[in-house]
């Protein structure tokens, strides 16, 4: 039985070689592109009249327009995050007409988890501090760095958010025999580590050596790490954020670092982005910032297209899609 010819709208500007692969993997269907393509998959796409012709959308379509295009059967996002699509009216509209939405969590779980794990290791072994010394006064503070190095083995880590990224990070930490506790709204019962609810998390914050924030942006998580919660951390704790900047009171975090209330912080996300050059976090002691690069990797766009193409095969065969969110 021949699959029906579908019209696939795409507003992502992939490199030429990746675009060739996309065209190859979607042969038999029609690809259409708006005039303005998004160079970054983190960019927000606006309304586009060509979306009205589409059965499938790949990229970052405008959420309101996606709700109003009755023929749209499936939206595949080129990001793991889906904050602006996480709304009741969209879910209800898609459910009413049997439309689907998927994201690209499967593409970003590995790089984001590796990024988080690498910073845990780097901070434990004083590597950023040594780099600062190399680019600074080259003071050769051997005794100081050796004294401040830590072993991750046996330490405790509290992971907020146990989606694809958090689950992969748990797997990476297993050989270190750390005390890993994950925090999620609704424990499933089949997790690879101990799991507690958000309501139970405050009681565990004072004992955590590492607090890993992978919370997505939503009304429930906005400003979750308040001044009060950050104040529960012990002075030797390290705070990490690879979730979303809006989940943290950044002024309170900067003060905690400046007043040595916590040992350090690593941030891959901030609010806003880019973080203004004068923001206190840039100069806060033992605060290390990367510009939202945790998900980046050399074959990122190839993997995005392959993830979509695999799901397209599933879609045309009537099978369950990977990374379905609606």
Which key features would you list for this structure?
single chain, 326 residues, 7-stranded parallel β-sheet, 12 helices
Layout of helices and strands, plus pairs?
Blueprint: E1 7-10, H1 16-25, E2 30-32, E3 56-59, H2 63-68, E4 74-77, H3 88-97, E5 100-102, H4 105-124, H5 127-135, H6 142-148, E6 156-160, H7 164-173, E7 179-183, E8 194-196, H8 198-201, E9 210-213, H9 227-231, E10 238-241, H10 250-258, E11 264-267, H11 280-283, E12 287-289, H12 300-317
Parallel strand pairs: 1-2, 1-3, 3-4, 4-5, 6-7, 6-9, 7-8, 9-10, 10-11, 11-12
Helix pairs in contact: 1-12, 4-7
Low-confidence stretches: none
Q: Return the average pLDDT rounded to an integer.
A: 96
Give the overall shape.
elongated
Q: Could you tell me the radius of gyration in angstroms?
A: 22 Å
**How many runs of DSSP E, i.e. beta strands?**
12
Q: How many H/I helices?
A: 12
Approximately what portion of the residues adopt beta-strand conformation?
A: 5-15%
**Physical arrangement of strands within the biggest beta sheet:** 8-7-6-9-10-11-12
- End-to-end Cα distance, whole Å, is 28 Å
Describe this structure as you would to a colleague.
Helix content is 34%, strand content 14%. The chain contains twelve helices and twelve strands. A seven-stranded parallel beta sheet has the order 8-7-6-9-10-11-12. Helix 1 runs parallel beside helix 12 (300-317).
Summarize the structure in short.
With 326 residues, the protein is an alpha/beta fold. The chain contains twelve helices and twelve strands.
């Amino acid at each position: 039985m021949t699959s029906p010819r579908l019209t696939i709208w795409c507003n992502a500007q992939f490199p030429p070689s990746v675009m060739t692969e996309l065209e190859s993997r979607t042969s038999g269907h029609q690809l259409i592109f708006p005039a303005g393509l998004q160079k970054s998959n983190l960019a927000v796409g606006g309304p586009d009249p060509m979306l009205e012709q589409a059965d499938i959308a790949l990229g970052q379509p405008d959420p309101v327009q996606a709700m109003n295009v009755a023929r749209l059967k499936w939206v595949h996002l080129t990001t793991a995050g889906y904050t602006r699509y996480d709304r009741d009216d969209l879910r209800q509209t898609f459910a009413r007409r049997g439309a689907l939405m998927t994201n690209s969590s499967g593409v970003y779980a590995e790089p984001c988890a590796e990024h988080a794990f690498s910073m845990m290791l780097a901070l434990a072994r004083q590597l950023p501090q040594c780099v600062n010394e190399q680019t600074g006064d080259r003071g050769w503070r051997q005794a100081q760095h050796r004294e401040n190095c830590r072993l991750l083995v046996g330490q405790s880590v509290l992971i907020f958010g146990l989606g694809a990224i958090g689950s992969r990070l748990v797997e990476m930490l297993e050989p270190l025999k750390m005390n890993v506790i994950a925090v999620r709204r609704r424990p499933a019962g089949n997790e690879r580590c101990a799991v507690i609810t958000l309501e139970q998390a405050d009681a565990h914050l004072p004992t955590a050596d590492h607090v890993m924030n992978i919370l997505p942006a939503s009304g429930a998580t906005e400003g979750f790490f308040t001044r009060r919660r950050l104040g529960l951390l012990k002075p030797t704790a390290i705070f990490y954020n690879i979730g979303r900047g809006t989940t943290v009171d950044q002024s309170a975090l900067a003060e905690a670092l400046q007043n040595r209330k916590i040992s350090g912080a690593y941030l891959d996300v901030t609010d806003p982005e880019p973080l203004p050059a004068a923001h206190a976090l840039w100069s806060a002691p033992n605060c290390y910032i990367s510009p939202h690069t945790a998900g980046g990797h050399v074959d990122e766009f190839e993997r995005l297209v392959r993830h979509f193409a695999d799901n397209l095969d599933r879609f045309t065969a009537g099978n369950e899609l990977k990374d379905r969110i609606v």
